[in-house]
Each structure stands twice: as C-alpha cells, then as structure tokens.
Amino acid sequence: MIHIIFDMDGVLLDSEPMHQQVIYEVFLHKNIPLDRAYIQTLTGMSAFPMWQKIKHDAQRVEAVEELVQFHKDYFFQKLPELHVAPVPHVKEVLALFKSEGKHLSLASSSGRKLIEIFTEQVGIKHYFEVIMSGDDVKYSKPNPEIFLKVAEWYALPPAQFTVIEDSTNGVKAAKSAGMHCIGFQNPLSGGQNLQEADRIIHSMNELLTR
Description:
single chain, 8 helices, Rossmann fold, DNA polymerase, domain 1, 2 domains, alpha/beta
C-alpha cells in the first residue's frame, strides 16, 4: 500500500451531514418533493450529474445548469457559517502514512474551490501530492474516471493504488478502476453499502493499528 487515494467528504472530513442538509434546504426552496433518504443515495456524486438525476427523478422543467447554479450560490451564501471537523484519527493516519513514505492523493467529487477551502481550514492540504476534483472530470462516481486520472498523473497502473471511500458510489468507482478499496463505514454518511470494498473499517484508528 504505497499509493493511497483519499476521498474527502466522509473520509477526511465529517462533512456529509452538512452537504446533505444544504441539499435538503435547496429542495425546500425549490419545492422538490424528495426526502432525506433519497439525498443519501446521492453521496459521492459531483454537482452536475447529481442534479441531472434529481431533475429526472423529480420531473423538473428547469435546466440542469440552473439547478446547479442555485445550489452553488446557496452553498457559498451559507459558507461563512459552515465549519467541518476532520474525521477522528484521520490526521494521525495522514501523518503516519507520510512518515512511511507513502504517496497520498485526494480525489473528491466536490469542486476544487471547496476542497481548497476545507482542506486548508482543517490543516491537511499539505499532505497531498495531487488533488483531483469534480471540476476535473466529465463523469461522476460511480464512474471510475476521477481515480483513473490520479493513476495517469503518476503514470502508474491502477492496480498499484488503494482508495479509501465512505460511499457506495465511491467504492463502485474504485473497484471499476481496478484499484484496491478500503470502505470506511462512517455513520455520518448514512446507510452506504460498502460490500464491494476489499476491506471495511469502522474507525480510522484501524489504519493506525494494522
């Protein structure tokens, strides 16, 4: 396990409840009759494909671009009051892996600006050699594109990478990429099915005692 790719929301940061709450509030503003259980199925998706799905499922007439922009504007309006905490023990894991000479990267469906803000806010940005965002890919998880782009950046075969993911979509993407996958069963990420992962952990502390 030399090259390790971390997802951000739900793996590095306990931010999934915050994202889900913002989406729920957008639904209320837009009178979209979908519930919180539905929102959990969107975990791991980037903005455009997520709103394509919502538009289809809720039979909305607005353009996807309009829905994406409304969500983005609402989120950044609320940003000053949004603060996220690192997942317990994840800073220790990052420090340990770095001290062991492992190559760490971040691949998140979130936009690059948001990744920059939150990784700097919790003081972990410097651990990562490469950061891939939802802005860098055409297809969202469960499509493997974002993980394959990390492998391309290193010019290495996908089989040399281990991905740490907390979502059903993320695990599917990692396995479709041909990578080893550790599923992190974060209770704050909702009822995510991680059964396709090669290993499932329930605390980042398990990576310190391997």
